[in-house]
Amino acid sequence: MRTPRLGVKALIVRGGHVLMNRYLDPDGTEVFALPGGGQEHGEDQVSALIRECREEIGARIEVFQVACLFEVFSTERMVDGTPIPPFHQVNVAYWCDLGEGEEPGPGTDPDPGQAGTAWLALDRLGDHVIHPVELVRWLEADPSSRPVSLGATGRS
User: Fold this and answer.
1) Cis upstream peptide for 132 (omega within 30°)
2) Nearest to 63 by CA among 96, 98, 100
3) pTM of this structure
4) What are phi and psi of 135, to 5 degrees?
């Protein structure tokens, strides 16, 4: 029996923009997602998020408090002719900031398909393909009315 994977994500907001990883789909479509990834056995969430951000955005981060939770589900699919098994990840997104003097750049071990990072304007998020899409509505909401959980996202 497979169990859900735990992921940690960084919500870095600065000057009306949010930092996102930029990916290119095989058809060339730009897709954006929060930096972060899977927590490894024996690793606490903050350490996992610091490691993942170093790998993906090439910068040291400061981790503050939990912002929201969301789950991602996908069914078996083909990627470059290889079957990818069903996937279920529970993500904990933390409010973060870049460490003093740090700026995003090439990561030490970026995700497959990652094509860098981008600062996206919070008031223009709807102009982009963002995963999970529920994150756009969450970021656009009044902070006092944001739920902790975005629920299940990315079902396919």
Assistant:
1) yes
2) 96
3) 0.89
4) -65, -35
Of 101, 116, 123, 115, the C-alpha closest to 18 is: 123
Tokens read off for 111: 């995700």
- Residue 112 CA from chain centroid, whole number: 14
Instruction: Determine how β-strand 114-121 pairs with β-strand 17-24.
Output: antiparallel
> Where is 109: in which H helix or E strand?
none
Tell me the Cα Rg of the chain.
15
Query: pLDDT under 50 in the chain at which residues?
Result: 155-156
Which are the contacts of 37, defined by CB distance < 8 A and separation ≥ 6?
A: 7, 8, 48, 52, 55, 56, 111
What letter would DSSP give residue 99?
P
Per the prediction, the chain carries an average pLDDT of 90
Between the alpha carbon of residue 115 and those of residues 14, 25, 28, 93, the distances in Å are 21, 10, 11, 21
Question: Which pLDDT tens digit goes with each residue over 64-99?
Answer: 999 999 998 877 655 566 777 778 899 999 999 999
